[in-house]
Known about the structure:
Layout (H helix, E strand, L loop, with lengths): L9 H11 L18 E10 L9 E7 L1 E3 L5 E4 L4 H9 L27 E7 L9 E6 H9 L15 H6 L14 H21 L5 E5 L3 E6 L10 H14 L6 H5 L4 E3 L4 E2 L4 E2 L1 E3 L18
Antiparallel strand pairs: 1-2, 1-5, 3-4, 5-9, 6-8, 7-8, 7-12, 10-11
Amino acid sequence: MTTPRRAATREEIHTYYTESFPAHIDTLPSFITAVGPKEYALAFREAYPVRKQGAPDRTFIRRETWQTNKSGDRLTKQFNSIDELIEFIQYPARHDPLQGSNYALADPDLLERPEPRPDAVYYALDHWERPWVLAVDIDAKDIAARRAASGAEPTTESTKQVDSEHLRETRIVDSAPEGYPYAFADIEQALEYGFAVQEIFEDDFAATETMVVYSGQGCHVYLLDTDHKHRYDEQSREVINDLLLEEYEIPIDPVVTADRRRVMRLPYSLHADVSRVVQPIQSPDFDFRTEAIPSFLTT
């Protein structure tokens, strides 16, 4: 029986990050450390205030892993250990590394609202200890949109313009999982594409270190070999985008591959919109219906 997809409650989010997530720390990819990615980021379902009066409430915050000077040189760690990073994810306002700054999250003890819970946890592809983490994003929504766009090529903007009303007219929103802008078949197709991209990296780029991650609504594919010659420069990333989109016709999000400032979902974090665990996978046969279920849906 398929466990229904639904948004996690704030209590379930808290349960996941305090009881389940810490057990995965030792299995995080080696480039995920307290001070490796240049930033970590959290998204909140509801806007939460910062300390500065008059500043807008935030639904998304980025936190650098190092304090730097004007030249960009590293000075002080923002997270002294992975445990401090976990505390920030579990209790963002109480363990905000910007404590003392006007832009730190407001103290929940001084507000008439509970501490925020992370709807999503991200890390930056830009990295202190390697040239860059190169990633490709394949989303089931884009695959569904391409189907709904009546055969439009995946490289055209038309697949980005298909609204929810049109998806409902084509019964995509009404098909399982009901209410989402894709069908289970679109997730399956995303995983197939993900391993096709991994094979392209290995065959066309002689990559020896790659990884496919189930993202909750599709997959992320990583090329992790250190590129000493190109250092993943803009031209190299555009070549990869063109190859995947135009030659192989794989509907990727080219901005993710091209933009060094992008953040990606942290492996083993919770995709709270669908209550599924983001995780590395070894095969397109990965059963996301049963193998990505957080414990709060099974107890």
